[in-house]
Write a structure and sequence with these properties.
Blueprint: H1 5-17, H2 36-39, E1 49-51, E2 57-59, H3 61-71, H4 82-108, H5 111-116, H6 125-145, H7 159-175, H8 184-194
Antiparallel strand pairs: 1-2
Amino acid sequence: MTQAPNPRRVRIFIAEKGTPVELRTINMMAGEHKTPEHLARHPSGKIPALETDDGQFIGESVAICRYLEAMHPKPDLLGSTPLEVGRIDMFNRILEFELWSQIGTSWVNGPVVAKMAAGRFKQIPEAKAASDTNTHRFYERLNRELGTRSHMADNRYSIADITALVAIDFASSMVGLKPADNLKNLWEWHARMSARPSAKA
């Protein structure tokens, strides 16, 4: 699923590193992520998963990025000083817990998943209404914060920018949660991030 945010986060990270990695597409619509073959790569049946040179597997996108950063330290995307490491990780976790979680709730309870997983579980319209509201409130918060800094984590490009970009793009195209047009700081940041060659990954 090329639009899935977690695989795209890793693809952008890889592109920023400039390190060639062989990519393989897992067809989630066909259930390939739940096959025994993929469960051997990631026990939770999620994507992405990275196979190392010695045949071991790492799942979860941030864990994969941490491994890649350790193997290829430059350019650093997780911080080069203890303070940067801590600040970048803080902002990245805020984005995951307070933005990705809300987009995820709206996605699971939205129309696309309703068609994909018809009858598999009960959707909760009230949960979607609340997470839609929370997502737009967080966009407004980001817009305010980007009035005081140039990037998601202070004033340098990092994994936090990748996390925010893929979340907003997925929310806009697949979940019906595009940020409001009047959020000028957020859209200016989005334009700069989207202009990076890695954003096409």
